[in-house]
């Protein structure tokens, strides 16, 4: 009896069942259907990389690190978000997340030449519930680099967890290996099991954007919006695309 009370009254559990149910109520685009089924999708259209001056963010002369992030300035962010909006990216994301979208992180992530099996460099999910990341690939395709590892469908199977160790996995077996080409746009749900041990030393970079929705049964809601905004530095999507 205690098991059932815990399982069905926990807010995270209720939220996941609720939004999994909504996935099948309204008609969705093909890309949103892929997100629902697999937890990730790769768009057919590519981002026009030439619109951003990447020189101020990328330095391949010194790559003696595991990973490095550089914050994208607001002017460049507006260019990136407007271009993504023009090619229909946020229409897909709103079908999956909802309309009241918040953006944060907004960095250029570069993987260097060091290997790692610690922290984020092990199979894990992000313990934030339903949330999406966009990767815009900044290199020509190279199968010797670290791909986006993703366990297909795992975003729907993880129901609950108690602490940090419950979100990390030693070996999750079969992963999809998702490689990008220059300008490729990859969207994935961070609630699914992703990443993996970094065993490659070939450098690569992506524009990394995080999107989450605010509202009923969401991690971000009216009660915690102010504190979470201060902590993470949310920007409302409409401020970036208008």
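^ Assign residues to that structure.
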């Amino acid at each position: 009896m205690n098991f059932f009370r815990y399982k069905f009254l926990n807010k995270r559990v209720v939220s996941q069942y609720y939004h999994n149910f909504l996935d099948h109520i309204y008609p969705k685009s093909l890309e949103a259907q892929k997100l629902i089924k697999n937890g990730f999708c790769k768009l057919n259209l590519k981002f026009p990389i030439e619109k951003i001056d990447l020189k101020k963010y990328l330095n391949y002369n010194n790559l003696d690190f595991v990973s490095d992030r550089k914050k994208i300035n607001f002017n460049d962010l507006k260019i990136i978000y407007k271009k993504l909006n023009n090619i229909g990216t946020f229409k897909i994301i709103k079908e999956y997340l909802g309309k009241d979208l918040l953006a944060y992180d907004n960095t250029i992530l570069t993987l260097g030449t060091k290997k790692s099996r610690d922290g984020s460099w092990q199979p894990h999910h992000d313990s934030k519930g339903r949330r999406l990341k966009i990767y815009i690939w900044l290199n020509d395709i190279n199968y010797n680099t670290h791909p986006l590892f993703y366990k297909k469908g795992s975003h729907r199977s993880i129901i609950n967890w108690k602490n940090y160790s419950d979100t990390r996995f030693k070996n999750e077996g079969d992963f999809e290996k998702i490689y990008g080409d220059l300008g490729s746009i990859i969207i994935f749900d961070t609630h699914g099991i992703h990443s993996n041990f970094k065993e490659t030393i070939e450098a690569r970079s992506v524009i990394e954007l995080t999107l989450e929705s605010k509202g009923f049964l969401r991690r971000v809601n009216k009660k915690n919006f102010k504190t979470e905004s201060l902590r993470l530095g949310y920007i409302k999507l409409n401020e970036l695309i208008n």
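Residues 4 and 10 are 10 Å apart (CA to CA).
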